């Protein structure tokens, strides 16, 4: 069935949905596998490391929406890298068993400088976190994707953007590309106050609600539910730990359009919410 999906010319399709669409639409991209190098490292917050990856391999990369992501492909335990191979259907053929991978949101893509920024939350024991913490400038990295975007438009009267630290890159990218004067409540729950230093674009009609996760559990969904209801049409984007955002899948159903995604799941390595 994937051979019948039209992956051609996705940029204008995403732009048209952003401009005049409604709800969420999945727009597939031609998927590539690319060899790039670490160009820069920047400690954005005490627990958020920005890796700038670049090189000729990024030419022709497709990314048009704030929620787009790539997979970092890691070597096996024996050090052998088993990368996927592009096929004639603009997809990738993956080796079996699958190699270890982790998904990361594209915070920035510079098609002229051939660079992408990936923001990595640092934590003990994580495959990608451990790699990122020690990644050296000049080190080669293999990335695959993005596979396509779940695009939602700029046509709503108000937006609620509810995330933990892993969703901050998508929120920041979305706010940068949103029309001037966009109205939004941004609810951000992090593990410690210093993580709220992550730079999120502000506007006159953008209100940020910072939360620090309590030992008793997440307050993300409860805080979103307690926000004042706005006149007009509201869109909810929520991304973070799967269990923390799960209540938002149903709590506002029928009241707002929404895209709710579990970027990771506590106790599960390589969680995939698709």
Can you tell me about this structure?
This protein has 274 residues and is an alpha/beta fold. The protein folds into two domains: 2-149, Translation factors (Elongation Factor Tu (Ef-tu), domain 3, Beta Barrel), CATH 2.40.30.10; 156-264, Nucleotide-binding domain of ferredoxin-NADP reductase (FNR) module (Rossmann fold). 16% of the residues lie in helices and 35% in strands. The chain has six helices and 15 strands. The chain has helices spanning 10-20, 127-134, 168-177, 220-226, 242-245, 248-251; strands at 25-28, 33-45, 48-54, 69-73, 85-86, 92-93, 101-110, 115-121, 140-144, 148-151, 158-164, 184-190, 206-212, 234-241, 257-264. Strands 2-3-8-7-4-9 form a six-stranded antiparallel β-barrel. A five-stranded parallel sheet has the order 13-12-11-14-15. A hairpin with a 5-residue loop joins β5 (85-86) and β6. The longest helix is centred in the first third of the chain and has 11 residues, at 10-20. The chain is globular, with a radius of gyration of 18 Å. The mean pLDDT is 93.
């Amino acid at each position: 069935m994937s051979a019948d999906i039209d992956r051609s010319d996705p940029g204008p399709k995403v732009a048209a949905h952003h401009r005049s669409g409604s709800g969420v639409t999945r727009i597939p991209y031609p998927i590539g596998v690319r060899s790039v190098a670490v160009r820069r490292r920047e400690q954005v917050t005490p627990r958020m490391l920005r890796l700038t990856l670049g090189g000729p391999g990024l030419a022709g990369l497709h990314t048009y929406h704030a929620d787009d992501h790539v997979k970092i492909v890691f070597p096996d335990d024996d050090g052998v890298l088993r990368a996927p191979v592009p096929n004639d259907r603009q997809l990738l053929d993956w080796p079996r068993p699958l190699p270890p991978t982790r998904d990361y949101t594209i915070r920035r893509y510079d098609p002229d400088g051939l660079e992408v920024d990936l923001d990595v939350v640092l934590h003990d024991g994580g495959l990608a976190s451990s790699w990122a913490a020690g990644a050296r400038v000049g080190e080669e990295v293999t990335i695959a994707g993005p596979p396509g975007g779940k695009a939602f438009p700029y046509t709503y009267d108000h937006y609620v953007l509810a995330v933990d630290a892993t969703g901050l890159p998508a929120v920041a990218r979305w706010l940068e590309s949103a029309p001037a004067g966009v109205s939004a409540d941004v609810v951000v729950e992090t593990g410690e106050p210093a993580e709220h230093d992550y730079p999120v674009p502000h506007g006159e009609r953008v209100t940020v609600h910072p939360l620090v996760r309590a030992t008793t559990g997440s307050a993300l969904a409860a805080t979103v539910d307690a926000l004042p209801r706005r006149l007009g049409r509201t869109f909810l984007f929520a991304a973070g730990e799967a269990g923390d955002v799960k209540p938002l899948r149903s709590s506002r159903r029928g009241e707002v359009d929404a895209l709710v995604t579990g970027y990771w799941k506590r106790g599960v390595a390589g969680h995939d919410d698709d």
